[in-house]
Design goal:
single chain; alpha/beta; Rossmann fold; 7-stranded mixed beta sheet; 6 helices; 7 strands; globular; binds glycinamide ribonucleotide
């Protein structure tokens, strides 16, 4: 691997985890650069932040592709133009095809808002409340073909408090995600 690692970050929305990674990379002088931020949605809020930081941004709009396979092929082309050592999914809300995942085997990470293996998939905060769990959390894992099931690299835990709503839980957890994700990536590239 080259000394200066290229990190490509994929987002679909606000991109607050992406922003936390961009800031940590700069503030902690990682031996890495955020080579690009790529979104499947043109209106993803995080694109503006990335552009303001001088990071190349690319939109690959999934809606314009007739199949998952065609979208994943275009996405792969867009990513590989930046020669990534690491592909970081940060609120990237797409299910990926197995060939795509295998192309990035061992170098693609995801953050999921639950204490995996509990609650893969959507609506994790709602499920935690419905189950009456005392703890909630987030997991950073290597992406494998089975959704939200790859090897775990790190977790952050929070307490579920009396009166918590989905929104309150999500907000409190997001603050922990912003510490967890940069910490895991930093240790990977060190
Ligand atoms: C984060 O909470 C992340 O864990 C979650 O989406 C949010 C994105 O926020 N990811 C998933 O649900 C993946 N299935 P952000 O765009 O502000 O980083």
């Amino acid at each position: 691997m080259r000394a200066m690692k290229n990190i490509v970050i994929l987002i679909s929305g606000g991109g607050s985890n992406m922003a936390a990674i961009v800031r940590a990379c700069a503030n902690e002088a990682w031996p890495a650069r955020i080579a690009a931020v790529i979104s499947n949605k043109a209106d993803a809020g995080g694109l503006k932040f990335a552009a303001e930081q001088g990071i190349p941004t690319v939109v690959v709009p999934n809606k314009e592709f007739a199949s998952r396979e065609l979208f994943d092929a275009a996405l792969r082309e867009a990513i590989d133009r930046f020669a990534p050592d690491l592909v970081v999914l940060a609120g990237f809300m797409r299910i990926l095809t197995t060939p795509f995942v295998e192309h990035y085997a061992g170098r693609m990470l995801n953050i999921h808002p639950s204490l995996l293996p509990r609650y893969p998939g959507l609506h994790t905060h709602r499920q935690v409340l419905a189950a009456g769990d005392a703890k909630h959390g987030a997991t950073v894992h290597i992406v494998t073909a089975e959704l939200d099931h790859g090897p775990v690299l790190g977790q952050a835990e929070i307490d579920v408090l009396p009166g918590d709503t989905e929104e309150a839980l999500a907000a409190r957890l997001l603050a922990e995600e912003h510490k967890l994700y940069p910490r895991v990536i930093r240790s990977l590239i060190a």
